[in-house]
Amino acid sequence: MKRLVVTLYIFAVVSSVIFAQNIQRFEYYGSENGLSQNNAYSVTCDKNGFLWVGTMNGLNRFDGKSFKYFHDYSHAHSHRVERMWTDKADYIWAETYDGTYEYLDQRHEEFNVIPFNSTNDAATAFVQYSDSLIFVGTEQSGLYALNLQNDGRYSVTQYSIDGKCINGLFISSDFTLWVMTNSGVARLSNYMIMSCSDWTVKLEQESVGFTGAVAEIDDNIFLGTKGHGIMQY
User: Fold this and answer.
1) How many Å apart are CA 206 and CA 25, to the nearest integer?
2) How far is CA 54 from the centre of its chain?
3) Of the candidates 110, 67, 78, which has an alpha carbon nearest to the alpha carbon of residue 92?
4) DSSP 8-class letter at 191
5) What is the arithmetic mean of pLDDT over 183-187?
6) For the CA atoms of the chain, what is the radius of gyration?
7) Torsion angle (degrees, nearest 10) of CA 223, 227, 229, 233
8) Are 223 and 180 in contact (CB under 8 A)?
9) Nearest CA among 34, 76, 74, 40 for reference residue 56
10) Contact 170/178 with Cβ under 8 angstroms?
11) Could you give the CA distance from residue 177 to residue 215 in angstroms, rounded to a whole number?
12) H-helix or E-strand containing 62?
């Protein structure tokens, strides 16, 4: 009986320690701690170890102790953040409720947005082509190329695709950029991208709508379509 009592006592002590440790692992941070809004839809971490929180009222940076609020006052768009990520230059990217991609230059604490006019347009696709080059697709205003400059800011060039909606972007193993639209697909070679600044996006298979689903297997590209199944290149 004495051995049973000792065993039960040890079990009770160990259980209470484990239970207490589990409770201590959870800690709440909200508006009373400086968070701009208590609905946190997206989080990401940057290269400096800061935690970024996207809420219904903009971006927040958390250093482990306090929040710093970042609000884009210079552009008219929704501030409800749906999704967040970082690029190779450690810009903070946020997709907002109205389909705008806003990106924050941490060094200069500057916001910019794509598309430029989000009233009847929306961003649809993002791809990091290289450490200093990004492409963003939109519903109406075409393809945007963002080149990182020496001062740490992006220069932005816009390429029209005749009002076509871009449904997806993909980089194949030979560094070809694939642009899938609702009326055709475009292939931009690495040579064209790196050697020209005024290239034109030429569409192929314009009678086919492409969904943006894409995969590469053994140098073969498989593209998802609307009503035509899978197309292989």
Assistant:
1) 55
2) 12
3) 110
4) H
5) 95
6) 24
7) -40
8) yes
9) 40
10) yes
11) 13
12) strand 58-62
pLDDT of residue 11: 44
Q: What is the pLDDT of residues 75-107, one digit of tens each?
A: 878 889 999 999 999 999 999 999 999 999 998
Q: Which tokens in the block code for residue 187?
A: 């292939």
Report CA-CA distances (Å) from 5 to 9, 11, 13, 19, 227: 6, 10, 12, 21, 72
Question: What does 131-190 look like in DSSP terms, one character per residue?
Answer: TTEEEEEESSS-EEEEEE-TTSPEEEEEE--TTPPEEEEEE-TT-PEEEEETTEEEEE-H
* Tokens found for residue 46: 């940057």
Query: Of the candidates 56, 30, 31, 28, which has an alpha carbon nearest to the alpha carbon of residue 42?
Result: 56
Percent of the chain scoring above 70 in pLDDT: 88
Residue 172 tokens read as 């194949």
Tokens 């953040």 locate to 81
Give the CA angle between residues 176, 178, 179 to the nearest 5°: 145
Sorted by sequence, the CB contacts under 8 Å of residue 180 that are 6+ apart come out as: 166, 167, 168, 169, 170, 210, 211, 212, 214, 223
Query: Which residue's structure tokens are 């389909």?
Result: 99
- Predicted TM-score (pTM) of the model is 0.84
Residues 146 and 141: their CA atoms lie apart, in Å, by 15
